[in-house]
Amino acid sequence: MKLGIDLDDVTAICAVPYLRKFAERFGVELPDESEIGWHLVDQSRVKPALRDAFRLELYDSPFFGELEVYPECPAVLERLVEAGHELYFVTARAEKRRVITETWLREKGLLRYAKGVHLKPRGDFVPPVHGRYDERGSAIYKWRVATDLGLEAFCEDDLTIARTLADGGIRVFLFERAWNRGLEHPNVTRISTWDQLAREIGV
Ligand SMILES: [Mg+2]
Fold first, then answer.
1. CATH number at residue 81
2. Is the dihedral of CA 91, 103, 115, 2 positive or negative?
3. Are residue 9 and residue 57 in the same domain, yes or no?
4. For the chain, how many structural domains are there in total?
5. Separation between Cα atoms, residue 54 and residue 60, nearest integer Å
6. From the CA of 175, how far away is ligand 1's center (Å)?
7. Last residue of some domain: 49, 66, 83?
8. How many A from CA of 158 to the centre of ligand 1?
9. Cα 8 to ligand 1 centroid, rounded to whole Å
10. Which of 48, 121, 140, 141 is deepest in the core (most CB within 10 A)?
11. What does the pLDDT read at residue 10?
12. Is 38 in the same domain as 84?
Protein backbone atom coordinates (compact mmCIF):
# COMPACT_ATOMS: atom_id res chain seq x y z
CA MET A 1 0.00 0.00 0.00
CA LYS A 2 1.10 3.55 -0.72
CA LEU A 3 0.64 5.51 2.47
CA GLY A 4 0.85 9.28 2.98
CA ILE A 5 1.96 10.42 6.43
CA ASP A 6 1.51 13.88 7.87
CA LEU A 7 4.28 15.23 10.09
CA ASP A 8 2.93 17.68 12.65
CA ASP A 9 0.77 16.01 15.30
CA VAL A 10 0.97 12.63 13.56
CA THR A 11 4.73 12.00 13.49
CA ALA A 12 5.97 15.00 15.48
CA ILE A 13 4.45 16.25 18.73
CA CYS A 14 3.76 19.84 17.64
CA ALA A 15 0.62 21.51 18.97
CA VAL A 16 1.54 21.13 22.63
CA PRO A 17 4.98 22.81 22.44
CA TYR A 18 3.52 25.44 20.07
CA LEU A 19 0.67 26.29 22.40
CA ARG A 20 2.95 26.38 25.43
CA LYS A 21 5.09 29.01 23.72
CA PHE A 22 1.99 30.85 22.49
CA ALA A 23 0.52 30.88 26.00
CA GLU A 24 3.78 32.10 27.48
CA ARG A 25 4.02 34.95 24.98
CA PHE A 26 0.44 36.17 25.21
CA GLY A 27 -0.46 35.21 28.77
CA VAL A 28 -3.09 32.67 27.73
CA GLU A 29 -4.17 30.06 30.27
CA LEU A 30 -3.91 26.46 29.04
CA PRO A 31 -6.06 23.44 29.98
CA ASP A 32 -4.71 19.95 30.73
CA GLU A 33 -2.30 18.64 28.12
CA SER A 34 -4.86 16.29 26.54
CA GLU A 35 -7.06 19.31 25.76
CA ILE A 36 -4.31 21.48 24.32
CA GLY A 37 -4.70 22.07 20.60
CA TRP A 38 -4.83 24.41 17.64
CA HIS A 39 -8.44 25.38 18.37
CA LEU A 40 -7.11 27.35 21.36
CA VAL A 41 -5.27 29.72 19.00
CA ASP A 42 -8.58 30.55 17.30
CA GLN A 43 -10.36 30.88 20.62
CA SER A 44 -7.77 33.23 22.10
CA ARG A 45 -8.28 36.97 22.10
CA VAL A 46 -4.90 37.50 20.45
CA LYS A 47 -5.27 39.60 17.30
CA PRO A 48 -4.83 37.69 14.01
CA ALA A 49 -1.87 39.86 12.92
CA LEU A 50 -0.06 39.06 16.18
CA ARG A 51 -0.81 35.35 15.80
CA ASP A 52 0.67 35.47 12.29
CA ALA A 53 3.79 37.27 13.45
CA PHE A 54 4.24 34.82 16.32
CA ARG A 55 3.84 31.80 14.05
CA LEU A 56 6.36 33.06 11.51
CA GLU A 57 8.84 33.97 14.23
CA LEU A 58 8.51 30.52 15.81
CA TYR A 59 8.72 28.68 12.49
CA ASP A 60 11.86 30.66 11.62
CA SER A 61 13.40 29.58 14.94
CA PRO A 62 14.81 26.07 15.65
CA PHE A 63 11.26 24.99 16.64
CA PHE A 64 10.78 22.29 13.94
CA GLY A 65 14.20 20.88 14.69
CA GLU A 66 13.42 20.39 18.36
CA LEU A 67 10.11 18.50 18.17
CA GLU A 68 9.74 15.06 19.73
CA VAL A 69 8.53 12.02 17.79
CA TYR A 70 5.48 10.08 18.97
CA PRO A 71 7.11 7.19 20.85
CA GLU A 72 5.83 4.17 18.90
CA CYS A 73 6.08 5.85 15.49
CA PRO A 74 9.60 4.78 14.38
CA ALA A 75 9.07 1.08 15.12
CA VAL A 76 5.74 1.05 13.28
CA LEU A 77 7.22 2.81 10.25
CA GLU A 78 9.95 0.19 10.17
CA ARG A 79 7.41 -2.63 10.26
CA LEU A 80 5.34 -1.00 7.52
CA VAL A 81 8.37 -0.77 5.22
CA GLU A 82 9.42 -4.32 6.03
CA ALA A 83 5.92 -5.47 5.07
CA GLY A 84 6.37 -3.85 1.67
CA HIS A 85 4.35 -0.66 2.11
CA GLU A 86 5.55 2.57 0.50
CA LEU A 87 5.64 5.59 2.80
CA TYR A 88 5.58 9.26 1.80
CA PHE A 89 5.80 12.15 4.25
CA VAL A 90 3.39 14.83 3.10
CA THR A 91 3.33 18.02 5.17
CA ALA A 92 1.74 21.42 4.73
CA ARG A 93 4.92 22.99 6.03
CA ALA A 94 6.26 25.41 3.43
CA GLU A 95 8.88 24.17 0.98
CA LYS A 96 11.35 26.63 2.51
CA ARG A 97 11.30 24.44 5.66
CA ARG A 98 12.75 21.46 3.75
CA VAL A 99 16.25 21.56 5.21
CA ILE A 100 15.15 21.73 8.85
CA THR A 101 12.44 19.15 8.15
CA GLU A 102 14.67 16.59 6.44
CA THR A 103 17.47 17.14 8.95
CA TRP A 104 15.00 16.42 11.75
CA LEU A 105 13.67 13.32 9.97
CA ARG A 106 17.22 12.08 9.51
CA GLU A 107 18.20 12.75 13.13
CA LYS A 108 15.13 10.92 14.37
CA GLY A 109 15.92 7.95 12.13
CA LEU A 110 12.76 8.34 10.05
CA LEU A 111 13.99 9.64 6.71
CA ARG A 112 15.20 6.22 5.58
CA TYR A 113 11.65 4.83 5.70
CA ALA A 114 10.28 7.35 3.21
CA LYS A 115 10.13 7.15 -0.57
CA GLY A 116 9.64 10.92 -0.59
CA VAL A 117 9.16 14.06 1.49
CA HIS A 118 6.62 16.55 0.15
CA LEU A 119 6.29 20.10 1.43
CA LYS A 120 3.85 22.75 0.30
CA PRO A 121 5.11 24.97 -2.51
CA ARG A 122 4.93 28.68 -1.99
CA GLY A 123 1.76 30.44 -3.09
CA ASP A 124 -0.15 27.24 -3.61
CA PHE A 125 -3.73 27.98 -4.71
CA VAL A 126 -5.31 29.81 -1.81
CA PRO A 127 -4.03 33.13 -0.46
CA PRO A 128 -2.86 33.10 3.15
CA VAL A 129 -5.55 33.17 5.79
CA HIS A 130 -4.66 35.56 8.58
CA GLY A 131 -4.43 34.40 12.15
CA ARG A 132 -4.03 30.72 11.49
CA TYR A 133 -2.48 28.34 9.07
CA ASP A 134 -4.19 27.89 5.72
CA GLU A 135 -6.30 24.78 6.21
CA ARG A 136 -8.15 24.91 2.89
CA GLY A 137 -5.03 25.48 0.79
CA SER A 138 -3.30 22.68 2.68
CA ALA A 139 -6.21 20.32 1.99
CA ILE A 140 -6.10 21.07 -1.75
CA TYR A 141 -2.32 20.67 -1.74
CA LYS A 142 -2.41 17.30 0.04
CA TRP A 143 -5.22 16.05 -2.17
CA ARG A 144 -3.15 16.90 -5.24
CA VAL A 145 -0.03 15.14 -3.89
CA ALA A 146 -2.09 12.10 -2.90
CA THR A 147 -3.57 11.92 -6.39
CA ASP A 148 -0.22 12.43 -8.15
CA LEU A 149 1.46 9.72 -6.06
CA GLY A 150 -1.51 7.38 -6.19
CA LEU A 151 -1.76 7.15 -2.39
CA GLU A 152 -4.30 4.68 -1.09
CA ALA A 153 -4.32 5.82 2.52
CA PHE A 154 -3.21 8.78 4.58
CA CYS A 155 -2.36 9.41 8.24
CA GLU A 156 -3.68 12.84 9.23
CA ASP A 157 -4.90 14.89 12.19
CA ASP A 158 -6.48 17.93 10.51
CA LEU A 159 -10.26 17.87 10.03
CA THR A 160 -10.47 19.76 6.74
CA ILE A 161 -7.62 17.79 5.20
CA ALA A 162 -9.03 14.47 6.44
CA ARG A 163 -12.48 15.27 5.05
CA THR A 164 -11.08 16.38 1.68
CA LEU A 165 -9.01 13.21 1.28
CA ALA A 166 -11.82 10.95 2.48
CA ASP A 167 -14.34 12.60 0.13
CA GLY A 168 -11.89 11.85 -2.67
CA GLY A 169 -11.94 8.15 -1.88
CA ILE A 170 -8.70 7.92 0.08
CA ARG A 171 -8.75 5.94 3.30
CA VAL A 172 -7.82 8.23 6.16
CA PHE A 173 -6.38 7.14 9.48
CA LEU A 174 -7.32 10.09 11.63
CA PHE A 175 -5.10 10.41 14.68
CA GLU A 176 -7.38 11.47 17.49
CA ARG A 177 -6.53 14.90 18.83
CA ALA A 178 -8.44 17.49 20.84
CA TRP A 179 -9.24 19.47 17.66
CA ASN A 180 -10.57 16.71 15.43
CA ARG A 181 -13.36 15.19 17.44
CA GLY A 182 -16.66 14.57 15.70
CA LEU A 183 -15.65 13.66 12.15
CA GLU A 184 -17.60 10.61 11.01
CA HIS A 185 -16.97 9.39 7.47
CA PRO A 186 -17.04 5.95 5.85
CA ASN A 187 -13.44 6.40 4.67
CA VAL A 188 -12.15 7.64 8.02
CA THR A 189 -10.80 5.30 10.69
CA ARG A 190 -10.06 6.99 13.99
CA ILE A 191 -6.72 5.97 15.50
CA SER A 192 -5.41 6.81 18.94
CA THR A 193 -1.85 5.49 18.70
CA TRP A 194 0.70 4.25 16.17
CA ASP A 195 0.37 0.76 17.63
CA GLN A 196 -3.32 0.85 16.82
CA LEU A 197 -2.49 1.87 13.26
CA ALA A 198 -0.13 -1.09 13.00
CA ARG A 199 -2.94 -3.42 14.08
CA GLU A 200 -5.37 -1.86 11.55
CA ILE A 201 -2.92 -2.39 8.70
CA GLY A 202 -1.83 -5.78 10.00
CA VAL A 203 1.88 -5.28 10.63
MG1 LIG B 1 -0.81 17.64 11.14
1. 3.40.50.1000
2. negative
3. no
4. 2
5. 10
6. 9
7. 66
8. 6
9. 4
10. 141
11. 98
12. no
Please give the pLDDT value at position 140. 93
- Each of the 203 residues of the chain gets a pLDDT tens digit; together they read 999 999 999 999 999 999 999 999 999 999 999 999 999 998 999 999 999 999 999 999 999 999 999 999 999 999 999 999 999 999 999 999 999 999 999 999 999 999 999 999 975 455 555 555 678 889 999 999 999 999 999 999 999 999 999 999 999 999 999 999 989 999 999 999 999 999 999 99
Q: How many CB atoms lie within 10 A of CB 140?
A: 18
How far away, in angstroms, is 25 Cα from ligand 1 center?
A: 23
C-alpha 6 – ligand 1 centre gap (Å) = 6
What pLDDT was estimated at residue 179? 93
Residues 6+ apart with CB under 8 A from 18: 38, 58, 63
Same-domain pairing of 134 and 87: yes
- What length does the chain have? 203
Residues 19 and 89 in one domain: no
* Residue 189, amino acid: T
Give the Å distance between the CA of 4 and the centre of ligand 1: 12
Q: Looking at the structure, do residues 61 and 152 belong to the same domain, yes or no?
A: no
Long-range contacts formed by 51-56: CB under 8 A, 24+ apart: 51/130, 51/131, 51/132, 52/130, 52/131, 54/22, 54/25, 54/26, 55/133
CA of 142 to the centre of ligand 1 (A): 11
Q: What does pTM read for this prediction?
A: 0.94
Structural domain ending residue among the three candidates 41, 66, 91:
66
Residues 125 and 184 in one domain: yes
